[in-house]
Amino acid sequence: MKQVLFSNDMALLQRWESILNNKDTQLLDDFNELFDLKDSVVIFNSDACENKSEVLIDVLVKHNNKILILDRVPDYFKVQKWLAKGIKGYGNVIMSSSYLLSAVDAISEDLIWLIPDITTQFVKNFVGHEEPKSHENMLLDELTKKEREIALLLKEGYTNTDIAMSLNISINTVKTHVKNIYKKFQVKDRIAFSMLFK
């Protein structure tokens, strides 16, 4: 299977290429060329994708590519989302040569390969029967109990008046809590607030 490497960092590309040392390895320097790939092992760092990683993953998976994403700082929540979208491997941009070779071998065989730190987190969550905290729960953890109640109602589209009636508190109390919630989340209005939960 052809191996395709993409990064906006030439030093990384050269490093990966020298480790893989394979005549079927192709280096790309144009992000848009990635969308044309089919039936390849595609290795890229997410920083190089101009915030288009999600779209790129969808297209690459649709074209039967096997994807290995390498990040400067591996992120457990990112990899959860990307695994659900169909990537096959995830690691660190400067992981050891043995890890990179192992990752490419595994995903070429249609197996999943994860850097050990991330694998450990998955195992801890699985064995401990702890559900990983959702993005929503992590956000709400920053709030007091009353703020959390109000935030959940805000998220559902309740108006300040609706919230006051529902929780049997004054409208001014609701406004104070809403102001504090916005401040903690560093948002200015309901639209920005609701976007946190998308």
UniProtKB/TrEMBL annotation:
<protein>
    <submittedName>
        <fullName>Helix-turn-helix transcriptional regulator</fullName>
    </submittedName>
</protein>
<dbReference type="Pfam" id="PF00196">
    <property type="entry name" value="GerE"/>
</dbReference>
<keyword id="KW-0238">DNA-binding</keyword>
<feature type="domain" description="HTH luxR-type">
    <location>
        <begin position="136"/>
        <end position="198"/>
    </location>
</feature>
<dbReference type="InterPro" id="IPR016032">
    <property type="entry name" value="Sig_transdc_resp-reg_C-effctor"/>
</dbReference>
<dbReference type="GO" id="GO:0003677">
    <property type="term" value="F:DNA binding"/>
</dbReference>
<keyword id="KW-0805">Transcription regulation</keyword>
<dbReference type="InterPro" id="IPR000792">
    <property type="entry name" value="Tscrpt_reg_LuxR_C"/>
</dbReference>
<keyword id="KW-0804">Transcription</keyword>
<dbReference type="GO" id="GO:0006355">
    <property type="term" value="P:regulation of DNA-templated transcription"/>
</dbReference>
